[in-house]
Here is the input.
Amino acid sequence: MELLKISFSTDALFFSYEKSTKNLSNFINSNNLYNNELLYSFSYVLKNKDKVKQTINKHVKYDFDGNFVYDNEITFNKYIDLINDFNCSKNIVIKSSESLTYQTYKKLLKVKYLSSITCYFMPENFVHSFTVKNVNVYFSFKEKFSKLFVELNNLKDMKNIYYKRNIEVTVDTLKDFELFLKINKHLKLIHIYEYESGIVEKLLDILGSNSYIILIHQNENNLDLLNNDIKKLKELNKKYKKFKGEIKFVFSDDFVKNNLFKQLTYSNLKVCSAIILYLAFVLLISNSYNDYVTWFNSNSIMNSLSTNETISEIIVDNGEESPVLPSDEEVEEDINPYANIPTNLKTLVEMNDDTVGWLSVNNTKINYPVTQSDDNDYYLNRDFYGNRTANGWIFMDYRNNPTNLNKNTVIYGHALLSGYMFGDLRQTIKSSWYKNDENMFITFNTLGVEMKWQVFSIYKTPYTTDYIKVDFFDDEDFLEFVDLIKSRSVYNFGVKVDEDDFVLTLSTCSGNDNGRLVLHAKLVQ
Here is the structure.
């Protein structure tokens, strides 16, 4: 039987688990001190909570400093109620080697007279909830991630690490991954691109009974290794499924093209053909339905925007100033980039507090509110109202600040065949679009500022992340970035971009090879 042990010292109360032994049996649930300790079973505490509270209070020293130490989060969550009513300033210490869970965070918010929290780690948004209540937060986390692991996974800050749902690991970054698991509370997928014999066994040792999906990506460099290890990997998968985890293989397009039909007989082909036709029909119906939902949501949003509030009435009060907006004297005054652009964004914020602005691109279907989440995954498969849909929604990169703009603000959306979301961004790559003067200025308004942006680069590129940098070391770094993205453009727009400018980047998928279609514009008003 596991017991709650409450230990008393001159400056702290310690709460921990203790295994029951025969020599302790006379002291369990007796409410009597044994070596300055109280011992209780969980069932006893549950039934006699008030009595246990009185006993604790009785043995607390008169000059007690209000330090409460818990050996882990489970102990804290189970027994915080025993001391919550104590009329003293409380310093809570949770001696865990992992980040706080959301459940513990909510419990801490309810602690009366809370003065400080010491824990392994909690994300920035948790910390903010306590600092506004004048509660000090201290971390015991001191380790550092390797540069290889950080760059491999584009880890920008600790908040990103805490909420990240996908991670890539290699043999050389397994120690970093072990540390990552102590911080992260949202991981779903583990990717292995650089497969080596033994990496999965080492990974499973780290994961223990925790369930994730491990994706092993086949490529020309690891095909022989995978063929040699396939039997062993299947056995490992069988064992891991007992913990509700799974090991899957992701085959390259070339492998599928070269090997799929070699594995099929004529009769199999007939069956597969029937299945393919059925799936194509289901996919067509599914896409049509998703497109209808997207159209319906867009129209519902427009119908909801019936007032005439201006953006200037909706300044976000977060203590930050809006960016100074550069002007461009070459822009003709008679161009009105705000025609038919809703300005009552307060209504949208009430509908979804993830709303950060509105984006509109001339002569396309792109005319939507822009959202932002804690990561770049949430709105990939959720609409403006938070409902799950394959069409997703238009969203700003989680790293961007929608109030005090970064040098490069990045907005994403799916490239739907119907043209919804960023599907119509494919129109911008056509000469009939980019040579039309009406299309040279697009609108992206935040909650506090009305803005127009001048297009200066449009292109398709194989998959890369070099165009979605949001911050830069210095002016030289920024100008090198500008030169790079201008050099890719299908057309020379003749627009000068200097170190004082702000850039807007619209990004979507292009083709079946994981390519990207990108539009860049600079802030001009």
The chain has 15 helices and 19 strands. Residues 306-341 have pLDDT under 50 and may be disordered.
